[in-house]
Write a structure and sequence with these properties.
Elements lengths: L1 H33 L5 E16 L7 E15 L6 E12 L5 E4 L2 E3 L3 E3 L3 E10 L6 E3 L1 H12 L6 E17 L2 E5 L2 E12 L7 E5 L3 E2 L1 E3 L1
Antiparallel strand pairs: 1-2, 1-12, 1-13, 2-7, 2-8, 3-4, 3-6, 3-9, 5-7, 9-10, 9-11, 11-12, 11-14
The protein binds 2-acetamido-2-deoxy-beta-D-glucopyranose (3 copies).
One 2-acetamido-2-deoxy-beta-D-glucopyranose (NAG) binds next to strand 4.
Pfam family, one: LEA_2
InterPro entries: LEA_2 (IPR004864), NDR1-like (IPR044839)
Subcellular location: Membrane
Length: about 220
Amino acid sequence: MAGAGAGNGGTCCRCLCGFLVSIGVAVLIYWATYQPHRIRAAVDFAELSNLTVVERNDGGGGGVVYYRLSINVTLHNPSGRVGVYYDAIDARLLLAGDGASLGPANATSPEVFHQPRMSTAVVTIEFDRSGGGGVGVAGDVAAELDKEIKGGGGGDGVVGFELALDARVRYKLGFVPIRARPKVRCPMRIPVKAGRHRRSGVGGVLSSGNRCTVKY
Ligand SMILES: *[C@@H]1O[C@H](CO)[C@@H](O)[C@H](O)[C@H]1NC(C)=O
Ligand SMILES: *[C@@H]1O[C@H](CO)[C@@H](O)[C@H](O)[C@H]1NC(C)=O
Ligand SMILES: *[C@@H]1O[C@H](CO)[C@@H](O)[C@H](O)[C@H]1NC(C)=O
């Protein structure tokens, strides 16, 4: 009696193991066949205008930065097998030197989209802090930025920024969605020149493809 019971249990266990192994193999085959590749990103155009730094000398020691920046980022899906669904893109601008925040983007377009396999999409990101209260920064950050804008004094300033994109994406492997959160970081060094009116700040254009780093 007892022996028959144990035999029954063994068969059951073998069944379960076989089932688990075949699920594992199926997932592996899926992964190998559809293996999602990392997206690639580059800045192919950036236009900065109205960049102004106001240093406050009233004891508080802080500063205010006003600017407007429009950036075209090219996102490339190199996978020949899977499309990428972008569910959200969170964009922020930082100063390259000290990593100080210049705030979140005002608009990202498109915000949500599907990128077919082996394709490239352009996302336009707009920052507009040219009006209102601008962005408050620490006093040393304002001083450093002011120095970068002035450059050697002959109007040959270069300002280093970093565009930070935190995306939420889904890869659809058949009916299995795989979620990922790629972090895209794009360094940009934009040469700046004063506008026609002193009050309108400095601006500049970047028109070559700076590669971004992408981490998963
Ligand atoms: C930036 O991207 C938008 C949308 O694709 C496009 O209409 C615009 O021409 C691009 N600008 C530049 C300068 O490439
Ligand atoms: C851009 O967004 C900031 C806050 O994130 C806001 O203070 C500012 O007014 C916005 N600019 C425009 C033009 O809407
Ligand atoms: C931005 O700069 C342009 C010219 O560079 C100027 O005409 C405009 O008034 C400026 N806007 C602000 C809000 O400073």
